[in-house]
């Protein structure tokens, strides 16, 4: 996870600056889970313990945290409730939500449509590191 964050930092030019917030503690994460009645997946907890949210590539990607000086907190729905309950919102990437599907133990890029109808069309990842790899690859391809 740490190497991916360092890679993102190395790709950040003036037009696509990235900012990583200070890490969250295990107790902050645990308290957030309890007070919001959610379970944060293991690989996203690892991310939060390195950085409690981030604004990546000029805010093309925003990853939500559990506390601190950030605008959006974990499970913040900028579409006012259109995201299905089985999805935990971790952030946004352009006009999609970055979510964790706790039923199927996967990460998805989700747009505001009926999830059960479009699930097969969503970009799916097995681990949060793969989400970061996806964004790194997109930026690498743009630089070519």
Describe what you observe in this structure.
This protein is α+β, with helices and mostly antiparallel strands and 144 residues long. It has helices at residues 2-11, 26-36, 42-48, 115-118, 128-143, and strands spanning 19-20, 54-56, 61-63, 87-93, 96-101, 106-110, 123-125. Strands 1-2-3-4-5-6-7 form a 7-stranded antiparallel sheet, covered by helices on one side. The longest helix has 16 residues, at 128-143.
What Rg is obtained from the alpha carbons, in whole angstroms?
A: 15 Å
Instruction: Name the beta content range.
Output: 15-25%
Q: Would you tell me the structural class of the helices and strands?
A: alpha+beta
Determine the mean pLDDT.
87
Largest sheet properties = 7 strands, antiparallel
Shape: globular
Give the secondary structure arrangement, pairings included.
Elements lengths: L1 H10 L7 E2 L5 H11 L5 H7 L5 E3 L4 E3 L23 E7 L2 E6 L4 E5 L4 H4 L4 E3 L2 H16 L1
Antiparallel strand pairs: 1-2, 2-3, 3-4, 4-5, 5-6, 6-7
Helix pairs in contact: 1-5
Précis, in short:
This protein has 144 residues and is an alpha+beta fold. The protein is 33% helix and 20% strand.
What descriptors fit this protein?
alpha+beta, single chain, 20% strand, 144 residues
